[in-house]
Amino acid sequence: MLGGLGIFLVTTTMDAVSYEYTDGKNVLTMEKLLTAAPRLNMEITEKVENDVVTVEVSGEIDGANVGEFETALRSAMEKAAKLVVDIGRLEYVFSAGLRVFLLIRKLTEGVGHSMVIRNVTDDVMEIFTVTGFVKLLVIE
Q1: Which of 98, 102, 104 is nearest to 63 (CA)?
Q2: What pLDDT does residue 28 have?
Q3: What does the DSSP 8-state code read for residue 38?
Q4: How many angstroms separate the CA atoms of 31 and 95, rounded?
Q5: Contact 138, 102 (CB under 8 A)
Q6: Of 1, 67, 115, 119, which one's alpha carbon is 20 to 30 angstroms from that of 24?
Q7: How many CA within 13 A on the CB side of residue 83?
């Protein structure tokens, strides 16, 4: 086998490696196929009991699905005086999702209703804390 540990590491971590000597120069070509990280789909369910509507959100809220998230919360807030957003299975929320939380809170308060957020995971609570949203939202 040619080479030492460096050659071994390169050939075992790359998908393709080739070497050639061209025009008096050493040319080493390495190829690594990269795959995108798997995306978590967002799932939303809604339950209405008495004058409380509970919206459960799981997965991730990102730029691709934030419109769906906003539409679901806008629709839910019209069905009851109290909106409960259960995010116990929400793994991540991007900045666009934070904007929706704040928007819906303002809209519910504007019509005399309320919004609370329940079952916040440690990861999402860290996002709320770092961004200052713990002071802007009602979290139970």
Answers
A1: 98
A2: 85
A3: P
A4: 34
A5: no
A6: 1
A7: 27
Residue type, 74: R
Outline which parts of the chain fall under CATH 3.30.750.24: 43-135
Give pLDDT tens digits for 71-123: 999 999 999 999 999 999 999 899 999 999 999 999 999 999 999 999 999 99
Rounded (10°) angle between helices 95-110 and 66-77: 10
pLDDT digits (tens, 9 = 90+) for 7-61: 777 777 888 888 889 899 988 888 888 776 666 689 999 999 999 999 999 999 9
Cα–Cα dist 34/45, whole Å: 34
What CATH topology corresponds to 43-135?
Transcription Regulator spoIIAA (3.30.750)
Average pLDDT value over all residues in the chain: 90
Pairing between β-strand 82-93 and β-strand 52-61 as defined by DSSP bridges: parallel
